[in-house]
Every structure is written in C-alpha cells, then in structure tokens.
C-alpha cells in the first residue's frame, strides 16, 4: 500500500534584506495531514481498491474449491445403485506408492448393482482388492485374478438413515469451511480500513460482497445435500 512520505524541508527562505518571507508550497508539495494522519492519495486508494478486490476474488475461489471438495465427498456415499465414483477415494499400494485405483484400472458398471475393476497390471489385483476392503465402504469384492467385481447390496432402512446422517455431517463441514473463508476475508478488509488504506464505504461494500457470495455458496451446499439425500432415500 502506497504511503505518503513527509520530508523535513523548511517552508521559509531568506529574501533580499533581513526580513523573513514565507514561500507558497509548490503543486508537488506533500498534502497536509488531517488530524494526525495523512489523507491517502488517489493512487493509494486505487491500489487499496485493487487489493480489496483480490481479497474478495480469493474468497470466492476458496469457496468454489470447498464446493468441489463437497461434490467429491458426496460421490463416495453409495445410494444402492452402482456408480464408478464410489471408488474415487480408494488408493492402493502400487510399487511402494499409494495410488488412486482409478489410475490403476478401468472401472465399469456392467449393471445397476455391480462394479467391475479391470487392473492394467494384473499383479496388482490383490492390492486393489485389499484397498477396497479396508476403505470402509462396506463392499465385499471378489477377485478372480484378472477382474475384481463388487456387488452393490440393496440398502436397508437402517443403512439409509446412517447415510443421511453422513450427508448432513458432510454438508455442515462444508458450511463451516465457507463461513471460515468469509471470516478471513472480512477480517482482512477490516484491517485495511483500520490502517486507513480503505474508506468506510469501500470496506462496507467489500464486506457486503463477501457476505453475498457466502449466502450463495451456503445455498449451493444445501442444494447439493438435498439432492444426495433424495438419491439415498429413493428405492
């Protein structure tokens, strides 16, 4: 942020004779302070406005990322119908490196109740099978040495209730993340206002913009959760 610099140059000169005469400051003179602070220049205000816009842009990008993470989390919740995305977060040991099985095999859906995993490297079948078992998804894969198959069991009423609770929990975590991003953005703008880098009206406009994008992202979280809950409860 640009800051006005005050130089200790005397405003008086000695003209002809011995009388003191005060000279008029040039157009390039430093602005006089208002109270104990200098008024920011138009260039400083423009830079501050741009900095505030960067803060709001960053907040929006982070909120969008939160929604992306939410979508990924929701795809791992099974709904009683086979979906290749169910295995998105499953990683297996591949030559000492944990690797997403989606990068190790072709995952297909031969029927609404079955997933099929065909490893590119057949020797990794056992590792992929173990990874699926230990992923906590409730799947019991079968491995014939070439292809791994997963039969998706029909959800019981009790299991549906558990999944609905899981949906709500994931949704609340996403909302907390969005609100934390709002707090960070608002705090940054308030600090700029306190340092006199922003006017009060500018600061309020920035905070209003962040609140508006917060409300929009919270609504998108609610919509995503409602959609998933409908999938879980649909027989």
Give structural notes.
With 235 residues, this protein is an alpha+beta fold. Helix content is 49%, strand content 13%. The protein has four helices and eight strands, in the order E-E-H-E-E-E-E-H-E-E-H-H. It has a four-stranded antiparallel β-sheet, with helices on one face. Strand 3 (91-94) and strand 4 form a beta hairpin. The longest helix is centred in the last third of the chain and has 38 residues, at 157-194. It is elongated and about 70 Å long. 23% of the residues are buried. Mean pLDDT is 82; it is low at 1-39.
Task: Chart the SSEs and their pairings.
Elements: E1 12-13, E2 21-22, H1 42-75, E3 91-94, E4 97-100, E5 105-111, E6 114-119, H2 125-134, E7 142-143, E8 148-151, H3 157-194, H4 200-233
Antiparallel strand pairs: 1-2, 3-4, 5-6, 6-8, 7-8
Helix pairs in contact: 1-3, 1-4, 3-4
Structural class: alpha+beta
Low-confidence stretches: 1-39
The tally of strands reads 8
Provide the succession of SSEs.
EEHEEEEHEEHH
User: What is the radius of gyration computed over CA atoms, rounded to a whole number of angstroms?
Assistant: 31 Å
Biggest β-sheet: count, sense, barrel?
A: 4 strands, antiparallel
Helix content: 40-55%
The shape is elongated
Terminal Cα span: 59 Å
Strand order of the largest sheet: 5-6-8-7
Mean pLDDT: 82
Instruction: Report the β-strand fraction as a percent range.
Output: 5-15%
Helical segment count: 4
